[in-house]
UniProtKB/TrEMBL annotation:
Keywords per UniProt: DNA-binding
Organism of derivation: Jiangella alba
Recorded GO MF terms: DNA binding; DNA-binding transcription factor activity
InterPro entries, sorted: HTH_MarR-typ, MarR/SlyA-like, WH-like_DNA-bd_sf, WH_DNA-bd_sf
The HTH marR-type domain, residue ranges: 11-147
Official protein name in the record: DNA-binding transcriptional regulator, MarR family
A GO BP annotation: response to stress
Lineage: Bacteria, Bacillati, Actinomycetota, Actinomycetes, Jiangellales
Signal peptide (from-to): none
SUPFAM superfamilies the record matches: Winged helix' DNA-binding domain
Length: 158
C-alpha cells in the first residue's frame, strides 16, 4: 500500500478555498434561481441539457450520464418536474423499454425566463472578479481535472 501524500500548506489552502468557493457560490446561485424563477439548480440543469439538443428530447440514460446522476435519483427528480409540467415523457417507438424526456412549452418558457438573471448572477458573483488570464487558467485546470477523473472513474449511471 502506497504511503499517503498529504497536502502541503499551499495545497491545503487551495483545496479548502476551492471547496468553500464551490459551497458559497452554489448556495448563492441556488437561492437566486429559486427566488427568481421557482426552479432548483437541478431543474435548470435538466432543462439546459434538453435545450442543448435539436429536438429537445433525451433518453433518460443519456441525461443521467450527462448529469452524472444515478438513474433512480434522476427518475424521481424527473417525476417531480413532470408533475410541474416542465418536462414530459414519450415512449421510444424503436425500443419498448426506453423513454424520452421531452421539453414542454412550459419548460422552455421557464428556462427562457430564468436564464437571463442566472447569467447575470454568474457574471456578478464569478466572472466579474476574474481577469482574462484567470479565466484561461480556470478553463485549463477544469479540462485537466475532468479528463483525469473521467479517465479513472466510472460514471454512476453506467
Amino acid at each position: 500500500m502506497a504511503e499517503t501524500r498529504w497536502l502541503d500548506d499551499g495545497e491545503q489552502d487551495a483545496w479548502r478555498g476551492y471547496l468553500r468557493m464551490n459551497t458559497v457560490l452554489g448556495a448563492a446561485l441556488s437561492r437566486q434561481m429559486q427566488t427568481e424563477s421557482m426552479l432548483s439548480m437541478q431543474d435548470f440543469e435538466v432543462l439546459v441539457h434538453l435545450t442543448d439538443v435539436d429536438d429537445a428530447r433525451l433518453r433518460v440514460s443519456e441525461l443521467a450520464k450527462a448529469m452524472r446522476w444515478e438513474k433512480s435519483r434522476l427518475s424521481h427528480h424527473l417525476s417531480r418536474m413532470q408533475k410541474r409540467g416542465l418536462i414530459g415523457r414519450e415512449e421510444c417507438s424503436s425500443d419498448g423499454r426506453g423513454a424520452f424526456i421531452v421539453l414542454t412549452p412550459e419548460g422552455r418558457a421557464a428556462i427562457e425566463a430564468a436564464a437571463p438573471s442566472h447569467v447575470d448572477a454568474v457574471r456578478r458573483h464569478f466572472f466579474d472578479v476574474l481577469t482574462d488570464d484567470d479565466i484561461k487558467a480556470l478553463s485549463s485546470i477544469a479540462d485537466r481535472v475532468i479528463a483525469r477523473v473521467e479517465a479513472t472513474d466510472i460514471c454512476p449511471s453506467e
